[in-house]
TrEMBL record:
The chain crosses the membrane at residues 32-53. The lineage of its organism: Eukaryota, Metazoa, Chordata, Craniata, Vertebrata. PANTHER family: TUMOR NECROSIS FACTOR FAMILY MEMBER, TUMOR NECROSIS FACTOR LIGAND SUPERFAMILY MEMBER 15. InterPro entries: TNF, TNF_dom, Tumour_necrosis_fac-like_dom. It is found in: Membrane. PROSITE patterns: THD_2. It is a single-pass type II membrane protein. It comes from Smithornis capensis. Pfam families: TNF (PF00229). One of its GO terms (biological process) is immune response. GO terms for cellular component: extracellular space; membrane. This is Tumor necrosis factor ligand superfamily member 15. Keywords: Cytokine, Disulfide bond, Glycoprotein, Membrane, Signal-anchor, Transmembrane, Transmembrane helix. It comes from the Eukaryota. Belongs to the tumor necrosis factor family.
Length: 239
């Protein structure tokens, strides 16, 4: 009877004892490396898949947003922007008013008096439908305006002296019953009784609607210096 000889993996490679065990370890390492590579690929694909899903959902969100923006207020803003963008700087509404002698009979007690202005003579002007009426500038077209005013107070007047003086730029609109204070400035007066001058300058970009009226109020109309037009003035222009 012939005897069967079993050749073990260790004996298959002569001179290398335990080579079969090393082979199994190498195979396990290869499998682990392949699994790690697959996991890495999956992890790298997750952000791409997320972005693709987001892009597929984006059109519906954009459509709903555009639908909401097409309301009356949005369309009005677009129309106003189209009108103002087509106007050159020379065509845009603007005005510069200068001080004149004040009519003290119209001053109301317990209310801040309204300053009266010159709109035609000297340095004063109104252009492109930005008009002056009833002591107020009347806005002809909606948009962003730079509004400014400087009032110079001077004294003393009589034997009394106020502790401070105040200037306010006020907006009056048909849609709101009460005047709105846009800008306000107050200065404390010094203790010099011999004679003093105190200018207050206000200026800012303000969003205005067609028909809004702008005026300047002061704490004491008797203290307004109306001697020269470059000391006290008021104006606005469309940006």
């Amino acid at each position: 009877m012939e005897s069967a000889v079993e050749i073990t993996p260790e004996a298959a490679v002569p001179g290398f004892p335990g080579s079969g065990m090393h082979l199994r370890k190498d195979l396990r390492r290869i499998r682990c490396a392949v699994l790690l590579c697959l996991l890495s690929v999956l992890l790298l694909m997750l952000p791409t898949a997320y972005l693709l899903v987001g892009n597929l959902r984006a059109p519906s969100a954009c459509v709903s947003q555009v639908t909401e923006e097409r309301g009356p207020h949005f369309l009005k803003q677009r129309a106003v922007a189209a009108v103002t963008e087509t106007l050159s700087s020379a065509e845009k509404p603007r005005a510069h008013l200068t001080v004149k002698e004040q009519d003290l009979t119209n001053a109301v007690e317990h209310h801040m008096p309204i300053v009266q202005w010159e709109d035609k003579q000297g340095l004063a002007f109104t252009k492109n439908n930005l008009s002056y009426s009833s002591n107020a500038l009347v806005i002809p077209v909606s948009g962003d305006y730079y509004v400014y005013a400087q009032v110079t107070f001077r004294g003393p007047i009589g034997n009394s002296k106020p502790r401070s003086v105040t200037e306010v730029i006020t907006k009056v609109t048909d849609s709101y019953p009460e005047p709105t204070q846009l800008l306000m400035g107050t200065k404390t007066l010094s203790e010099n009784w011999k004679g003093w001058l105190q200018p207050i300058y206000l200026g800012a970009v303000v969003s205005l609607e067609e028909g809004d009226r702008l005026m300047v109020n002061v704490s004491d109309i008797k203290l307004v210096d109306y001697t020269t037009e470059h000391k006290t003035f008021f104006g606005a222009f469309l940006l």
